[in-house]
Design a protein that fits this description.
It is a single chain. The chain is mainly alpha-helical. The chain folds into two domains: 44 residues; 143 residues, Protein Binding, DinI Protein, Chain A (2-Layer Sandwich), CATH 3.30.910. The chain has a two-stranded parallel ribbon. Helix 4 runs antiparallel to helix 5 and helix 5 packs across helix 6. The chain is elongated, with a radius of gyration of 28 Å.
Length: 188
């Protein structure tokens, strides 16, 4: 029974390799045709774009970040205070462990747990606010980003624009992220 299962698994693995090879060969042949067409005109003009960096390096993003920092400032200050209080209690517990009674140690541990709960609550609240603002920002300005990309592609006459995340390697000269950010800043 085990032998049959092993043979079945080997057959499936060989099929997967064949399918992957077929997909890769098909992809290379299709991309070869695209590049062959562009090559007849002097080669394709390729660009690389980090869309997130283009959007989040814009002046709009800086303004939203400043507003968000003001909005979460009180919670951020309290988070830092709680971290300092927790560190001080932890240090006291480790340094004075020999002279503290069991009741005092339990009291310090309870204080640490309470600080941990407050810290975690505030951290989650700030993270939730940041995530909400990020989603709103992306939804609000995604059409502006697309327009900035389109403008740069038209002005520079690019044939192919790849996301930076999919490129294993590229020369800096191919990166149009800064141009898109500049175009996005011009729109405002």
């Amino acid at each position: 029974m085990m032998y049959t299962f092993s043979v079945f698994i080997l057959g499936v693995m060989k099929m997967k390799k064949s399918i992957i090879f077929f997909i890769a060969a098909f992809g290379f042949s299709v991309s070869g045709n695209v590049f062959a067409q562009a090559d007849s005109a002097g080669g394709p003009k390729i660009a690389i774009l980090d869309m997130a960096a283009a959007l989040y390096n814009s002046e709009l993003a800086a303004a939203v970040q400043d507003q968000l920092s003001l909005e979460t400032e009180d919670d951020s200050v309290r988070i830092r205070e709680l971290a300092q209080e927790g560190s001080a209690l932890q240090q006291r517990l480790s340094v004075d462990a020999e002279v503290l009674s069991d009741a005092e140690q339990r009291e310090i541990i309870e204080e640490l747990e309470e600080i941990g709960v407050q810290y975690q609550y505030l951290e989650q609240r700030v993270e939730s606010i940041v995530q909400q603002r990020r989603e709103i920002f992306e939804q609000t300005y995604s059409s502006d980003l697309i327009q900035a990309i389109s403008d740069v592609v038209e002005e520079e006459d690019y044939d192919v624009v790849l996301r930076a995340e999919v490129a294993l390697f590229f020369k800096g000269a191919l990166d149009i992220t800064a141009k898109v950010t500049a175009k996005l800043n011009e729109q405002q």
